[in-house]
Predict the structure.
Amino acid sequence: MSIVEMKVPVIGESVNEVTLSQWLKGNGDYVKLDEPICEFESDKATLEFPAEAAGKLIYVAAEDDDLEIGALVAKIDTSVAAPDASAPAATPAPATEEKKEVVAETAAPVAAPATASYASGHPSPAADKILKENGVAANQVSGSGVDGRITKEDAQKAVAAKSSAPAPTAKMETPAPSTPSANFSRGTSRKKMSRMRRTIASRLVSAKNNTAMLTTFNEVDLTEVMKLRKKYQERFVEKYGIKLGFMSLFSKACAKVLMEMPDVNAQIDTDTNEIIYHDFADISIAISTPTGLVVPPVKNVESLKFHEIEAAIKGLAVKARDGSLTLDEMKGGTFAITNGGIFGSMMSTPILNEPQSAILGMHTIQQRPMAIDGEVKIRPMMYLALSYDHRVIDGSTSVTFLVKVKKLLEDPVTLLMDL
């Protein structure tokens, strides 16, 4: 017997531990070289772990186990040969009289069904998250992927079918007297925090405890931005194949002001007690996923065009929700933007994304009466919030930054013309 030990590889400089989120192959299955056998969840991304040899897979670790770098995950017995795929499996041999009686008694089918692989009926990571989030059991979903695996599209169709199914009609009956315990549930349940959720919790507490965080507020009139989008949206989509959204306009406005005000684009190196200044604007965009909030950066926003920013944000959002963001795509960022307005938030105080020194909070757009040149007019207004680290950024600097961003958005032609 020849055994190859599969150990947790070095994933990144800052990753010291991972969680085995799920096995992709069954215990005892034959695996091929480089075939994914399980998935690891780090504090930044979900990664597939490929087999380092071909042979029989032997589990060592279990799902939900926390594993340090170098820990033993599984073993592969390379002395086990691959199953003979050329051997006939569907046509049974002629049966004797005795065998015919057994067949008749057990009502066996004429042709033996092919053995299902481990992938059959097994959801992909993205599909598994969708099914669990919506309370749909995997055994209720037909898989259309390779070897019958349940894909993300299969999961979405199953959830849509569940939500559109008519509710059962209840019979009108006089309810029988019941005890209080039948009416009021007092049950509890426990679920282990995912590695990403634990990391998010740790970083939020760190940001709260280790920075001098304050928030300043303002409001912006988006009349001209909305006119701009309405006037040019069709031509923009026709040329670039993507819509002109609010995020590219806000990102570009922030990047322009960041280049003018380097303090807001800086961060503290606590090891050397130095302030690091950046001559580029890598803007982290907060994206909500089933497992938590991630903030991958769009790099060099100051140099990108609007359609390039929109495409970059869309690409990161798709990867984040599919769980396919790489560690490199998660690294960096000199400033952050979070848009609580898509969930209906009117105002909030966003928390810093360390080691960054500032984050802009966008909120829902509301039609409000405003005094314009002595007249009351209804305008689309949004509250803006800038949370900042007072160790790096002075109060006057934070207010000035927010006012500059406000002016650019209220007169977007100056933004387009770089004035």
